[in-house]
Specification:
By secondary structure, the chain is an all-beta fold. The chain contains no helices and 10 strands.
């Protein structure tokens, strides 16, 4: 057991940390998520700005979109967020479906 003194905002705390002899226990690795489809070269990726649930998908593969068109409705923290096209183009691939839970930064679609 190792003891340390930690100063937090002017208050000193004494902390005891137990050392492990031998190999440290290994936690089970989380299940790997399915890989996202590869983006076409030169395509504009549209990613989720925050974690949430896809309430509506308003674009389909091959559909022409203009900058500012609403592509998805993402519900996060009981608010509906419109995910808009960042540029003119064609939806090369749509990676999510209605009702899907997405993490922050998850690929939603690629505009070509």
């Amino acid at each position: 057991m190792k003891k340390y003194k930690v100063n937090v905002n002017g208050t000193v705390y004494e902390v005891a940390i137990e050392t492990m002899d031998g190999a440290a226990p290994v936690a089970a690795a989380p299940a790997a998520a399915a890989p996202a489809p590869a983006a076409p070269a030169g395509g504009e990726k549209v990613c989720a700005p925050m974690p949430g649930t896809i309430l509506d998908v308003r674009v389909s593969n091959g559909a022409a979109v203009k900058k500012g068109d609403i592509l998805f409705i993402l519900e996060a923290m009981k608010m509906e967020n419109e995910i808009m096209a960042p540029c003119d183009g064609t939806a090369a691939s749509v990676s999510v479906t209605k009702g899907a839970a997405v993490d922050s930064g998850a690929l939603l679609c690629v505009l070509g």
